[in-house]
Amino acid sequence: MEEGLRERKKRETRQRIADMAMGLFMMRGFDGVTVAEVARAADVSVNTVFNYFRTKEDLFMDRWDEVEDLPSKVVRERRPGEGVVAAFRRDFLDALDTGDWRYGLNEGAEDFGRLVAGSPSLMARMRELEHATDLRLARTVEEETGADPDDLAPRLVAAQILVVTRVLARTAILRKQAGESWAEIRPDVRRQAEEAFDLLADGIGDYGRALS
Description:
mainly alpha, Arc Repressor Mutant, subunit A, Tetracycline Repressor, domain 2, globular, transcription regulation, DNA-binding, HTH_TetR, TetR/AcrR family transcriptional regulator
């Protein structure tokens, strides 16, 4: 259905608040900015900020729901005949080649990482996000494969894949933070990703193959 005027204004207000907050966080660090300062920058009241965002951490992670669902989306949208590992290999390499944000392989990801690392509350929130993502992906794999609820395989598959993508992304971001360019980093990460997904494929490569 076409978005109504009221819904569009609410969405635009929410986005403006989140954008202003991130700009301030980038300049002064997460712990150096108050919600009142975000409200002033966005020209809204503090109460309005909290109408859209439950906590200050939610201002930083305004795309939580989307990020939590991204790995599950890869599984749901895998191609006919494509296993779960192959789907993630394809999606990860595409994000790497295009510099897309979904695995943290984009310009500016190193700054985002520094902000998270510099705030204990953001570190804790990131662990919550990763845990929620793990659970959602395991449920999606279970649903997509028709696995029994007592079957550990969906959880094991989800855990192995997410560990691989996170290790690859964090390794790349550390190199970017050290001053290397993405042009230097990408070829190495592509090689490492191919090797990592080959290792997964040897054990679980055919798991969850979609029907033709």
